[in-house]
Amino acid sequence: MGNGPVGMERVGTEHVSTEHDGAEHDGAEHDGAELVGRRSERVLLQRALDEARSGAGGSTTVLRGDPGIGKTALLDWVAARAGRDGFTVLRAGGDEAGTGIAFGVLHQALRPLLEHARALPRRQRAALESALGLRDPAFSDGLLVGASVLALLAEETRRRPVLVLVDDLHWVDSSSAAVLVFLRQRIADLPLALIATSRPIGTNRPIGTSPATGTNPPTGTSRPAASVLEGWPAHLVDVGALSDHDSRALLRRRHPDLAAATARRVLDEAAGNPLALTELPGRLEDEHRRGVVPLPERLPLGERLEALFAQGLRSLPAEAKRALLCTALDGAGTGALPGPVPGQDRAEGVLGPIEAGGLARLDPTGRLVFRHSLVRSAVIAAASEADRRAAHRTLAGRLRADDPRRLLHEASAAEGPDERLAARLQEAGTRVALRGGDAEGALLLDRAASLSSDAGNRMRRLTWAAVMSARGGRLAYAAKLVGELKRAPVPEDVAPLFAYAVVYVDQSHHVDFASSFSLLPTALATLTASGARGPGGSPGPAFGDLVEQMFFKLLLASVYTGDSRGWETLERYREHVSPAARLCHRAWADPPRTAHGAEAELRRMVAHRTARGETGHAWLLLWAASAVDGGDPDLWRLSGGEHAYATQGSVAKARCHQDFLRGRWDTARECLREAETAEELGYHCNALLFRHYHAHFLAGRGDERGLRAARARIEPVARRARMRFVTDHLDRLGALVALAHGRHEEAYTRLRGMMSPGDLPRGLSWFHLPFFDFVYAALRCGRRTEARAHVAAGQAARMGDISAHHAFLLAAATALTAGADEADAADEAEGVGEADAAYAAACAVPGADQWVFDLARLRLAHGSRLLRQGRHTDAGEPLRAALTAFTRLGAAPWAEQCRSALRGADGSPDSTAAGPAELTAQELRIARLVATGLTNKEVGAALHLSPRTVGAHLYRVFPKLGITSRAALARALPPGRPSGSPPGPAPSRRGT
Hints:
Elements: H1 39-54, E1 59-64, H2 71-84, E2 88-93, H3 104-110, H4 122-131, H5 142-157, E3 162-167, H6 174-184, E4 192-198, E5 235-238, H7 244-254, H8 260-270, H9 274-279, H10 286-289, H11 303-309, H12 318-330, H13 348-356, E6 360-362, E7 368-370, H14 373-382, H15 385-398, H16 404-413, H17 419-434, H18 438-450, H19 455-471, H20 475-485, H21 495-508, H22 514-528, H23 543-561, H24 564-572, H25 579-589, H26 591-594, H27 598-612, H28 618-627, H29 633-638, H30 645-661, H31 668-681, H32 684-700, H33 704-720, H34 724-740, H35 744-752, H36 768-780, H37 784-796, H38 804-817, H39 829-843, H40 852-868, H41 872-889, H42 892-905, H43 921-931, H44 936-943, H45 947-961, H46 969-972
Helix pairs in contact: 1-2, 4-5, 5-6, 12-13, 12-14, 12-15, 15-16, 16-17, 17-18, 18-19, 19-20, 19-21, 20-21, 21-22, 21-23, 22-23, 23-24, 23-25, 25-27, 25-28, 27-28, 28-30, 30-31, 30-32, 31-32, 32-33, 32-34, 33-34, 34-35, 35-36, 36-37, 36-38, 37-38, 38-39, 38-40, 40-41, 40-42, 41-42, 43-45, 44-45
């Protein structure tokens, strides 16, 4: 993108500038902080300054490039550097209007030095002041003026080095140009650098010629300015277009709030031109900048860009202008005709002026190609509406009747309503949508609506356009269309479709589910009534498919809010939808009672569709898979191209959650990037859900501060929308963080608010995720009865028959509660064997190792239990495996729990504080907790021990410390925080 003119050597590849040239300077000073990139050019310019300062001066550099490419910005940069380095900086710039003013540029440059002209010899001073209009004209030749300027500059270089900057050399008047040529040949020994800018040769009239006649104006000099470049020195630097990366960087810097789709279009139109990147977005309407409404066919350039890129248009013959306009309107942004230019356009009178002005050229295939994409935009901007319509008619006539481009040109040429043309556009939009191009189809339907002569047909087409735009990823535009639809009566035959469009926009864009329960039941009743006909026109989903999509939207609203009205309606219409929709419904409706075998059925459906190459309704299967934590790669492939962002956003959400569940935590930031994309496209509900999935990673890592910040951003929106799906998840994540930091009572209290012991509640479709957490927290708080009741409820509900993840979580929770209460070794031998078998069974569940975080927590629990039983050697293996997993996940608090347990497994004292050598690590922990005033039962709950085991340890501790009472523990132990105790003040002292 943005290649320089053919044959021009490019200097540097990291081109970014924020400045324009050839237009009025904006007055902003540029320095290194303003120039993003341009490293190679800056190196060359700095070298010129260094040479001048060292006395080996006389260098001359010309920065050559297209209008707006950033040459002036480089002059600004080098001027600032030279000023800081003690140079005298002399600056001037040519302009088209001033080409006939003799010595005009020279006067600009020398103005700061004119007070020193008195030191010149009398004849030189007179010649210089006469040339600059400072005294009455006197006869002098150009050589004498040049010698006077050289002497003036030489005098200044005795005081400090000099930098002369000349912008827009191609517009320098001939008199000044002649002096510059004279100087160039004689400044080799001076501490002076001369840097100029110019456009590529061939893109402008010859330098110094009259804009009107092309002849040299009278200047009083004998040397034409066109020769300035002919022998111009050495350092000719071609300043090219910005790289894609740096173009994006510049656009983000100048227009950080630009919508992604708008930014992409601006990048394409600008083709690496810095001025265009800076100026184009500022000419757009706010709704275009925010991506609410699709951008127009041509972007408004603004006066400065039009002046730069359309300077050669005014003098072109009419036929040449028409050829350029046809090329511009047919090129779809490429700036080239699809076929050879017609023979008459090849005439020298047409192509000659176009090529001479540097506007466009014929490529080797005979296609007319614009020098820059902005020339195309300038050509369109300069044409009248009537000229554009005529060009579209010409282009339509050149294309076959079945060419889709012909229809678009006919629509652009239309001067008023045309029902026949609108019907053809609707038909074309239908075909495009059926191929998966919903966004493109929506634009055709919108254009058809604008050409409709019948008000009812207009509303029908707008309704379909709103639906297709939403599914195609232009939700903000869909919201605008829905707003327009609400202002006029909607025909009865598209009322259900209108309801669907409203619900789609409300759910996805406004994060509002109220209309789902007020509109969809009526729409479903209408569409499923006996003899019901599909929505008028039907240029989108078929009748059955619309019922399916409404059913799905109502299912989403019901899952997210738990509203009983939705579940009741869904139950009524289950028989009107496909097996895929019914599977999706039963996977989410009440999983402990409705989802048995759901994952197995899902696999069969995916395999069947994959074998037959069918992709229809993959979005339903994708949502069913989310209910059972399925991650079938074939399902991702089935969902590969359906409905653009509507499905792709769902795929991304599923992937985010799967990455958390399966331990791919290095992808956590993808959730935030997806949230930004969703926001750009107007899918605010998706953005909320992506941030909610990112919060899972924060909670898993025990990042309390991060989770608090995420919750502060997520929860207010979710509560306004009554999204229990999100708010309940946030409560569960809070419990997960509490578990990570050993605050088991807090975790249990949070989870207890979601479910009761032994109860798998309706309305909590993802009950299995906090199931293991609930049992874990209950046990660590000493609530074994509640923990066992919960496991028994899971077993009774055949939780393991729902999915592989459900099965693992049930087996893991069962392992936690297996075995008798721990007392002394003689009493618990039978329970130890039962517990070992249960842990082994959990690890043997098919696919157990894919649930990385859950399995690591199970291993930590297993190792800690073995340690409490005194089986230190056996405890090492699961604890080390858990530590490895937690370390890889970045779950630092969990990893520290493993390290603490491993210290106990090694039999070493607690490393957090020194203690009496006679005590084991476990004895020291118990002694310190008892010293705070806790009872045996409370200590047991904190360390997952029975009260009898605590008592047995104390029985051994007292003799080792030489004490006989609990009260003496505090004095016998060294200072140190009890290991495993929560932070905060010590509990009040109680008796046993």
